[in-house]
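Project standup — Tuesday

K.O.: blocked on the structure for the chain from last sprint. Re-posting the sequence here as requested.
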Amino acid sequence: MRFWIAVAAFVAAAGSAHAQPCDRQAFEPCQACHALTKDAGIKPGPQLAGVIGRPVAGDPAFDYSPALRAARAKGDVWTRERIDLFLADTEAMYPGGWMGSPPVRDAKLRADLLCALGGR
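H.V.: unblocked you, prediction finished:
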């Protein structure tokens, strides 16, 4: 019985470590071009509300680069993993894309950005 109590305590502690809130302020620099809510108005970049699970180049109001339109035609979908790779090195993932920000090399910052996008 004590063994199972210890296992349950360990699992609960491990789960709470993953449940820590993300730093949503990480998204602040992105707000110059992107919005996380549909009522935020038009921005220079695509709308990111509900981006996880959406087709790449899936904001109908945005004119995407040919590289991202080709990814959409191929059937690419924004998953948490794909966004992480995209943020880490956009140009390597989709050469010729138009995102003007530099790669996000810091894994914690990318995790916070993904959390802000709803990818937790």
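K.O.: great, moving the ticket to review. Confidence is low (pLDDT under 50) at residues 1-17. The helical segments are 2-18, 66-74, 80-88, 90-93, 107-116.
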